Model the fold of this input.
Amino acid sequence: MNERIFESKIYVLGDNIDTDQIIPACYLNLVPTIEEEYAKLGSYALCGLPETYPPFVAENQNKTDYGIIVAGRNFGCGSSREHAPIALGAAGVRAVVAESFARIFFRNVIATGELFPIEAEKRLCDILITGETIRLDLDSYELTRLSDGSVFSLKNLGAAAPVIAAGGLFAYARETGMIPTRQ
Amino acid sequence: MKTDELNMTKNRQMTLTEKILARAAGVAAVRPDDNVWVKADILLTHDVCGPGTIGVFEREFGRDARVWSRDGVVIIPDHYIFTADEKAHRNVDTLREFVRNQELPYYYDPGTPSYRGVCHVALPQEGHVRPGEVIFGTDSHTCTHGALGAFATGIGNTDAGFVMGTGRLLLKVPPTLRFLLEGDLPDGVMAKDIILRIIGDIGVDGANYCAMEFSGSTIDKLSIEERMTICNMAIEAGAKNGIMAADAKAEEYVRRRTLRSYTPVTGDANADVAGEHRYAAGNLVPCVAGPHLPSNYMPAADCNDVTIDRVYIGSCTGGKLTDFMAAARLLAGRKVTVDTFLVPATAEVARGLETETIAGKPLKTIFAEAGCLDPAPPSCAACLGGPTDTFGRTSGSETVVSTTNRNFIGRMGSKQSSIYLASPLTAAASAVRGRITDPREFI
Done:
């Protein structure tokens, strides 16, 4: 995750998107450290949303067209299942821009290095629309709507940024000498 | 550090959570938002997150690596046990192989007499929860164990893999929110009503990143199992942990279950907290949390017009022996009018259904005579939906009154079903009437 600037179509969600909506419990029999099951988790990302939402991942696909999610408050509340950030990461999501995050989900995102959890200064889920294309710049911490060039500022990731950039908790712990480098 | 600053640190008044973390970090004092490396006493995992945790551990430390402490890793399969799902069986096999290779003494194997059931009820029952200790678990309801004065919090597979290898984890010290409850609970009001009211008041992210500390004469009078119900749902307000100081009742519970020594921790009464909420127990009423958030608080009496299709009594929140005792007390001599599913959390609870009696009748007989479905074997069952053949899983547009902890869309299986969270008493009263019912109608 060295890329700091990316453009993508967005998928917009409201408040309290819980881990059962991100990955329903019937798919927790999949083990994220098994390669083909990791990929399969991507195909189920956000399939627990109410039917009123457009499909996040098309049928028979493992990847989504929406590389960035924009959400309201408390994104990822509920379970500690790491399957949740992994399903999103496996589906090709590179960032979630939310008003706020639930604690364990935020921590799991950092530990796995699957994607960037970014808090916005404004409630962007009321402003942006699913299918729009945006540019996310994690050097300047700005989100730009490409249709009209409007720019929204984001909160700095602070101490968590280098951990995600390194590829997660273990990579960071090795990079910084907290645990020995692997032979 | 200057001498006066050092003294300020040494003399810093700390909450119960801060004191436990300071001790586990080997430092004199911590403050909220400090990042500290904390020593783990227990790492708990189960069949849903265990295989992934083991995968991380072996990937990062090598296939020949040993866990940091054989006594520290406790593995309690409980989620997908009574299912034909092949991957679920493979996952339990993964746990078995790991336990064998690592020679772990604390493994509770499905299909054998050592099988226990729901990890958050089994962990304290087996003596693995001790006051003042630090417990990490790959399950968000690990916060349950704060009821015995431990620091206990849920973590993901990657963090758990790290703990498995190193026995440590980097933690941000949470600010404490204090909840003071005074007075006697009215008849018909249970611990579940307390925590649903609190979550209703502060919201599902009202305690995000915080410790929720519960105290007062109301808490003192609660049984250990009722205390667990409260700490169990701290996560539903976003908390990092729920905690209660260990009193004589807690010590007695622990000493009956383990010979291991431990040193309890007491919080400082004058410690700074981020917020304080006071409740007079006498004002609390039986309640439900309506679909689809645990914060949708409503007095049960206001929901009389909600007709229901089924009642579910089970899980780490509402499947303990005291939960079934409460339900049985209300159901004795009455009939349920909707499908009523009973899932004892653990083997010990299942035994209790046969050995505990009310007016000379075993609970199991009371439930059978009331027309409840035969109790299922202990496991998480339909609390979180699970594989499609899970006992009690919703499959259509059922309206359920459930003693579990979450009522998210699709949580119990079907996205079309509606879940009302309630106490075992409210669940039992609702089962009799076929609509949401305040149990005080029967008391």
